[in-house]
C-alpha cells in the first residue's frame, strides 16, 4: 500500500487553478500538532495559574510559549505530572486540570 503524499504542487501560473481558495482546499495539508485554542499568556500565567481565578491551575498545550518540536502529548503529560510537585511549598489547595 503506497501513500499518495502531494508535494510541490504550487500552480505553475497565477491562473493555474480556479482560485487561491480552491487551490488551498485541494492541496494544503498539515502534519503539525495543534497545541491548544487559547492565546498564550492571556488565560494562564507563567506559573500555570488561571488569570482571575483563585486556586486553579491549568496545564495544557495552550500554555507552551513555543513548540516543543514534537507531538505535544508527552510534553503536556510531563508538565501535568511535574506541576503539582513543584508547587508543594504552597499552603493553598489548588486544583490541577490536565487537558490532553
TrEMBL record:
Domain Glucose-methanol-choline oxidoreductase C-terminal: 14-80
Entries under InterPro entries matching the protein: FAD/NAD-bd_sf, GMC_Oxidoreductase-Related, GMC_OxRtase_C
GO molecular function, one term: oxidoreductase activity, acting on CH-OH group of donors
A Pfam family of this chain: GMC_oxred_C
Protein name, entry field: GMC oxidoreductase
UniProt lineage: Eukaryota, Viridiplantae, Streptophyta, Embryophyta, Tracheophyta
Amino acid at each position: 500500500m503506497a501513500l499518495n503524499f502531494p508535494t510541490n504542487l504550487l500552480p505553475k501560473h497565477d491562473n493555474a487553478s480556479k482560485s487561491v481558495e480552491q487551490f488551498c482546499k485541494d492541496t494544503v495539508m498539515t502534519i503539525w500538532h495543534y497545541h491548544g485554542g487559547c492565546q498564550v499568556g492571556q488565560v494562564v500565567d507563567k506559573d500555570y495559574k488561571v488569570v482571575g481565578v483563585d486556586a486553579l491551575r491549568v496545564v495544557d498545550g495552550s500554555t507552551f510559549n513555543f513548540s516543543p518540536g514534537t507531538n505535544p502529548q508527552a510534553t503536556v503529560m510531563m508538565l501535568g505530572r511535574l506541576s503539582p510537585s513543584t508547587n508543594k511549598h504552597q499552603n493553598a489547595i489548588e486544583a490541577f486540570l490536565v487537558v490532553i
